[in-house]
Amino acid sequence: MLPRLASREQQAAARTNWAGNYTYNTERLDLPKTVEEVQQIVKSRSPLKALGARHSFNGVADSTGDQISLKYLDQMVVDAKSRTVAVGAGVTYGQLAPYLDGQGYALHNLASLPHISVAGACATATHGSGNRNGNLATAVSAMEIVTADGNVVVLSRERDGERFQGAVVALGGLGVVTKVTLDVQPAFQMRQVVYENLPMAQLESHLDDIFSSGYSVSLFTDWQNHRVTQVWIKSRVEPGASSKMESDFLGAKLAAKKLHPLAGHAAENCTEQMGIPGPWYERLPHFRMNFTPSSGAELQSEYFVPRDKGYEAILAVEQLRDHVTPRLLISELRTINADNLWMSPCYQRPSMAIHFTWKPEWPAVSKVLPMIEEKLAPFNAKPHWAKLFTTSASRLKSLYVKLPEYQALLGHYDPGGKFRNGFLNTNIYGG
Ligand SMILES: Cc1cc2nc3c(=O)[nH]c(=O)nc-3n(C[C@H](O)[C@H](O)[C@H](O)COP(=O)(O)OP(=O)(O)OC[C@H]3O[C@@H](n4cnc5c(N)ncnc54)[C@H](O)[C@@H]3O)c2cc1C
Question: What lines the ligand 1 site, CB under 6 Å?
Answer without folding.
Answer: 18-19, 49-56, 60-61, 70, 89, 111-113, 116-117, 119-121, 123-124, 126-127, 171-172, 176-177, 293-294, 384, 386
